[in-house]
Q: What sequence folds into this?
């Protein structure tokens, strides 16, 4: 890690470690993912080429060396762009590249996640720091509070600060997938949302706000263990 | 208090934090507060002290979780008055104060202007506006003046506070850019004023301390990094996690944990028993117990013999019988029998401690379980997605399972068309349980039968390989075929997979336990038989030696060379026999597991994969398909294997080493197998807290395996001619011996006194009393919990009615009136609910929407004389500066505040 450690200045790395729940290795690895996305893309295509439906995932076992390989190739690439690394930390990576990460690929909330963490004015790309934020929130050691806070923002599809019926129905659709056979019917949907509001909407205003959401989430036995993404 | 209340408190904090990020009151407060306090740093003479402290308090309340804005407002107002006082005293300060108030006013305008929009950029802007100003104020306040003690103290406090901010920054839901600037500002502040702290001789010391603290932080961070790097198989497990979800990964995490525990046990046994014996003990062949008997000598090196742990292996340091009963060995005078005993005890002690500790740490994070049925739908909705899933196939399965669970719970909720099937379901469940009990009894009897038969075989001479290994084979086969049988039977029951998993685990547990205990009982019979024979063998040995040395026809003057150790007749050494049984069982268990994986998973996968091209139906989707990873079976296999290790390690110190190897290989092997030949579960479900369930099972097994070992140590006499305790009446006599010979006499007296039943019985009684007391306390606490929950529900009802009333009221009059009515409502609630701390302005920030009326509302609060009475209405238990209100009132508070202030839709 020494070679790439010098790319990211020591002070910045220390600050990132202070500000996120990530370890040094994780931060450096995410540098690779963001700054050398095409490498990951290549890996990814190589992997997805192997994979067709119904087949077990035997061929994917080689994904663990991904980091080391990406790292090595990243280091090979470095001399040309040595000076620009600091600037490229500020570069914006478009959503498509983030969304094609294998860890996010299957996630129904991937667009929402990117949107919530994006700080660019148009909300269509992630900077490296945004990406670090994302990983930090989804890391193992993040507090349940911050996890539930971001979960709320992810579920809040229209960004209005509360979960209303519209948000909830979109959430249900995300959870049940795109397939026709797994969709819920309109009456089922209504019933479901009614039940959820009955349980969680403490002040009976027809929406779930952040504190109500966190109230519910804090009681969940397994939220913190499943609200995780690891690279 | 118990979990629920803790949860509520956490939630309260969460609410606070949520409030913290919502815009204007906070920034306003901070600006005002900061500027005032900064100013106070410079300007404060004695009269300002009190106010400064107050502002300090307000800030400390704020930075991790902001306290009530209203209180701060009053604080600020008072501070304003102080400023007034100071104005009279010093002229230069007046202009400053005025300027500041101007600033504040202008700031209020700023906050008022963009109040409607509640997007982050606005906050950003405010923060950015605020920052240079406050820092400039701070710097101007400090510019080149000498500092008094109080100021120093204050700066110290501020620095501490900044440090706290730095430490908690990571758990703030801010974007990184903002966190970075905040962090840099805070660090700059700390750097700047750290140097200013401490004068004269204290200064250098202080600087040194700071330096050391920094170094320490850096070291800790590096160490943490190092630690995470040292966790083995992290990538493997994460890979599996992303393909199969967290439930399969939980098995591997458990396996890894088990490996760690076994490594420690291995270190203990290897380092304290085996190595000293090998290095310093008498060498092989010196005494009978360390020599292969003459009759076995020629076959002792055959592989088939070694494979059964007979021959040379039986007479090696791997087994109990090899150890000598010499009190001390080598030039170190190492007390081996004592060490052997203590290691045997500490293996159990360490295992108990580590299991209980990890159970406790698992439970700490979780909240009360009784709560969960209140939120079934919400949990399904908000927490059912497993974000670790990175495989599209698993994701599809997950979609399907979520949909099913939604539909199921809707159906459950409606409670229709379930009624007609209930009798059938009940019948099927009873039938399934009946079948399974039959299976269990059958397997228990089979094992008993086989073990009895093996005792007959052991008396006969030339028995075949199968007859010799019948017990192990039968046990392994049972372990292999019964779980799938149970699973098939469990299909009848139609449980939810998570419940089904629990049942399945319970059944396999019963099976294994039954098998193990039958095995133990049969083994115990064998041991008793051997013990009964021991006396005759002892006599034979004695007489052989006697005859050998006293036989006639030997020159009396020359002492006879000692009898060769291989020729000395010896006892059967039941301890080694038990050790060998466990060793064999472990090895055969391992082999069966691997063969099952190879045949059942890998070959099946290969067959399905390659024969699919030339088969008449779709093998992948149809009948054989790919195997799923059997979590319950694997976990229980692991747990029982560990139980055998615990039981056997006292009689076969080498067993733990074998187990470490086994775990290591099975980690790699199973990782490979699961990735290559298993498919994700059709109904993916999360691990939830089954980790603790595993731990509970492990604890039970540990206890159960402790029992037979303790029994043999306490009540069976050790063999007379093998092992470290030979010649003693009981194994634990070694303790007494050590105490008598090696410790000073008064210690021996103390021990004797401690072992006195007159002391032990009261101690046990005391423990029972303590258990009773703690039990009743926890019961009463849970009752209190239930009552609080009821109260919350009741308040919810009240709130509902309030809401409806208010809705009608607001329907009548529109426009500005909601604000007034809401204020009335809050006041009304305040007076009615005494335990509720003053809530209106505390909760005003719960909702961003409430900001508009909120600020003006709180402003009017401070302007009103009523603000004076508010602290009075505060209950005495609540500290005025505590950010968290009593937890049970929080719901009510946030609810009331919100309903009061939000304009109804």
A:
């Amino acid at each position: 890690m020494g070679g790439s450690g010098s790319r990211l200045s020591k002070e910045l790395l220390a600050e990132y470690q202070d500000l996120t729940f990530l370890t040094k290795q994780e931060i450096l690895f995410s540098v690779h993912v963001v700054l050398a996305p095409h490498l990951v893309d290549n890996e990814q295509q190589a992997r997805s080429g192997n994979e067709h439906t119904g087949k077990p995932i035997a061929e994917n076992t080689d994904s663990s060396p991904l980091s080391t390989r990406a790292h090595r190739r990243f280091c090979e690439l470095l001399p040309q762009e040595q000076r620009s690394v600091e600037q490229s930390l500020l570069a914006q990576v478009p959503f498509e590249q983030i969304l094609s990460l294998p860890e996010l690929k299957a996630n129904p909330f991937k667009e929402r996640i990117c949107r919530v963490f994006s700080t660019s004015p148009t909300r269509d790309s992630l900077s490296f720091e945004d990406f670090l934020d994302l990983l930090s929130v989804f890391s193992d050691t993040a507090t349940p509070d911050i996890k539930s806070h971001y979960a709320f923002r992810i579920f809040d599809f229209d960004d209005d600060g509360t979960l209303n019926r519209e948000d909830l129905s979109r959430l249900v659709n995300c959870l049940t997938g795109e397939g026709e056979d797994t969709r819920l019917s309109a009456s089922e949907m209504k019933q479901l949302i009614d039940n959820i509001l009955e349980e969680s909407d403490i002040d009976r205003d027809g929406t779930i706000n952040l504190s109500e959401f966190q109230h519910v989430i804090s009681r969940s036995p397994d939220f913190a263990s499943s609200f995780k993404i690891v690279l | 208090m118990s979990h629920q209340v803790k949860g509520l408190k956490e939630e309260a904090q969460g609410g606070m934090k949520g409030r913290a990020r919502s815009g204007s009151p906070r920034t306003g407060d901070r600006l005002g507060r900061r500027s005032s306090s900064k100013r106070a740093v410079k300007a404060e003479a004695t009269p300002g002290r009190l106010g400064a402290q107050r502002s300090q308090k307000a800030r400390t309340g704020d930075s991790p979780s902001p306290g009530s804005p209203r209180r701060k407002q009053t604080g600020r107002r008072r501070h304003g008055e102080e400023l007034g006082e100071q104005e009279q005293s010093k002229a230069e300060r007046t202009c400053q104060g005025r300027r500041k108030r101007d600033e504040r006013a202008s700031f209020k305008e700023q906050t008022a202007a963009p109040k409607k929009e509640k997007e982050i950029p606005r906050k950003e802007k405010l923060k950015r506006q605020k920052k240079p100003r406050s820092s400039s104020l701070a710097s101007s306040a400090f510019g080149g003046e000498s500092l008094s003690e109080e100021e120093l103290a204050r700066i110290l406090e501020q620095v501490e506070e900044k440090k706290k901010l730095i430490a908690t920054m990571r758990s703030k839901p801010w974007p990184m850019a903002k966190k970075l600037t905040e962090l840099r500002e805070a660090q700059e502040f700390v750097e700047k004023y750290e140097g200013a702290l401490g004068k004269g001789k204290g200064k250098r010391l202080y600087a040194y301390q700071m330096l050391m603290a920094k170094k320490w932080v850096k070291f800790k961070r590096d160490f943490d990094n190092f630690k995470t790097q040292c966790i083995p198989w992290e990538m493997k497990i994460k890979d599996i996690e992303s393909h199969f979800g967290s439930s399969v990964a939980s098995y591997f995490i458990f396996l890894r944990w088990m490996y760690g525990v076994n490594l420690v046990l291995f270190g203990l046994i290897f380092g304290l028993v085996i190595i000293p014996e090998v290095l310093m003990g008498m060498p092989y062949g010196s005494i009978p117990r360390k020599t292969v008997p003459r009759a076995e000598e020629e076959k002792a090196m055959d592989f088939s013999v070694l494979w059964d742990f007979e021959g040379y292996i039986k007479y090696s340091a791997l087994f109990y019988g090899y150890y000598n009963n010499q009190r001390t060995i080598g030039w170190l005078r190492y007390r081996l029998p004592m060490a052997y005993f203590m290691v045997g005890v500490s293996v159990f002690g360490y295992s108990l401690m580590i299991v209980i500790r990890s159970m406790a740490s698992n439970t700490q994070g979780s909240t009360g379980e009784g709560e969960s049925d209140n939120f079934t739908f919400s949990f399904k909705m908000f927490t059912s997605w497993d974000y670790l899933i990175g495989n599209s196939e698993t994701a599809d399965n997950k979609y399907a399972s979520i949909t099913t669970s939604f539909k199921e719970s809707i159906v459950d909720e409606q409670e229709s068309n379930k009624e007609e099937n209930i009798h059938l379901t009940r019948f099927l469940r009873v039938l399934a349980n009946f079948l399974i009990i039959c299976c269990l009894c059958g397997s228990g009897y089979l094992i008993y039968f086989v073990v009895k038969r093996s005792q007959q075989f052991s008396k006969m001479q030339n028995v075949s390989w199968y007859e010799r290994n019948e017990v192990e084979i039968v046990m392994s086969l049972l372990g292999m075929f019964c779980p799938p049988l149970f699973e098939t039977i469990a299909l009848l029951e139609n449980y939810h997979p998570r419940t089904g998993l629990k049942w399945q685990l319970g059944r396999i547990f019963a099976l294994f336990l039954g098998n193990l205990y039958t095995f133990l009982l049969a083994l115990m019979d064998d041991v008793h038989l051997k013990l009964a024979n021991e006396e005759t063998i002892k006599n034979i040995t004695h007489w052989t030696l006697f005859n050998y040395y006293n036989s006639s026809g030997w020159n009396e003057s020359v002492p006879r060379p000692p009898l060769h150790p291989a020729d000395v007749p010896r006892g059967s050494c039941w301890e080694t026999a038990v050790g060998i049984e466990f060793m064999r069982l472990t090895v055969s268990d391992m082999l069966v597991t691997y063969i099952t994986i190879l045949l059942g998973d890998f070959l099946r996968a290969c067959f399905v994969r390659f024969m699919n091209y030339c088969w008449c139906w779709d093998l992948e989707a149809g009948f054989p398909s790919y195997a799923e990873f059997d979590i319950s079976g694997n976990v229980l296999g692991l747990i029982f294997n560990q139980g055998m290790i615990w039981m056997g390690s006292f009689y076969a110190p080498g067993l733990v080493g074998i187990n470490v190897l086994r775990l290591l290989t099975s980690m790699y092997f199973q990782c490979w197998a699961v990735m290559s030949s298993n498919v994700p579960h059709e109904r993916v479900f999360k691990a939830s807290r089954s980790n603790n369930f595993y731990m509970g099972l492990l604890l039970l097994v540990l206890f159960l395996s402790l029992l037979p070992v303790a029994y043999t140590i306490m009540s069976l006499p050790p063999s007379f001619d093998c092992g470290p305790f030979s010649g003693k009446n009981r194994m634990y006599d070694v303790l007494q011996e050590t105490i008598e010979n090696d410790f000073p006499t008064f210690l021996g007296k103390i021990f004797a006194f401690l072992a006195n039943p007159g002391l032990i019985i009261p101690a046990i009684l005391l423990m029972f009393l303590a258990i009773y007391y703690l039990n009743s306390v926890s019961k009463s606490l849970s009752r209190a919990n239930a009552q609080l929950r009821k109260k919350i529900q009741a308040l919810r009802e009240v709130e509902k009615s309030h809401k409806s009333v208010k809705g009608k009221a607001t329907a009548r009059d529109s426009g500005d009136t909601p604000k007034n009515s809401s204020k009335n409502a809050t006041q009304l609630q305040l007076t009615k609910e005494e335990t509720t701390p003053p809530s209106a302005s505390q909760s005003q920030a719960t909702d961003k929407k409430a900001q508009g009326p909120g600020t003006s509302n709180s402003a009017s609060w401070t302007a009103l004389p009523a603000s004076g009475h508010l602290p009075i209405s505060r209950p005495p238990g609540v500290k005025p500066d505590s950010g968290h209100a009593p937890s049970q009132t929080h719901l009510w508070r946030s609810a009331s505040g919100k309903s009061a202030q939000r304009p109804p839709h």
User: Anything to note?
Assistant: Strands of chain A lie at 92-94, 125-127, 162-163, 208-209. Chain A is about 60% helix and 5% strand. Chain A has two domains: 65-138, 143-230.
